[in-house]
Amino acid sequence: MEFWFSENHTENVQFSIRVDRQLYSGQSEFQRIDVFESPEFGRFLTLDGYMMLTEKDEFIYHEMITHVPMAVHPHVKKVLVIGAGDGGVIRELTRYPEIEQIDMAEIDPLVVEVCRKYLPQTACRFDDPRLTIYYEDGLRFVRACDNIYDLIIVDSTDPFGPGEGLFTREFYGNCFKALKEDGILINQHESPFYAADAAACQRAHKNIVGTFPVSRVYQAHIPTYPSGHWLFGFASKKYHPLKDLDDVRWNMRGISCRYYTTTLHKGAFYIPAYVEELLKNVE
Asked: Both 244 and 107 in a single domain?
């Protein structure tokens, strides 16, 4: 007998992965958490039945959400990460010795506990001495911050359930206040391909454009996310993601990546015409 994990991407489209076994299933205060093992994608994490990451392609998401701002901002010392309970963003940030402080606001401690046990490939740097984990709502956490961070990375779930508040105008305004005068905000921006996801992209983009003087969108190909075409938002008080890219400085660091390069960085901001149109309609 074969076992399959299936996720509905729309009412008419379903994405399925054959599963060897289920390693964990539990219900936290906030969501259902499952970990499966598959022959093609290795172990993967789902929250409330939605794919969060797989061992095979997680590097794409985590490299693109982390290294893009790090190649632009010239002196990141203090970082706030919201969400990111799987540990992938933390893993990538700890590769930068110049970062002095990483604060992580994750609403669900069980996600961290489960990922530590079952997904050590991503949850491998939670013991870094620069990291402090705050188990609380990221929306509430950032509200109390003022002029603290050089970089905020919002590695949230989709814009419903526990992650819903992390796509609002209020939240982006609080992030603006929490950033220093040259700070950068990065967020996962959903997929532009299917109608419901595209509408979520537009709402987020409209709220960010109304808050930050610099606001751009960039893309990556992530096979296990809806349509495989995924967007990220780059918002800044000062730096432009292309004009202020210092590719020489970043390449001299010698950080080895499997997806990100400074050449790819430039190309990622050249988005397809249909996405340009989608975003222009709300700007």
From this structure: yes
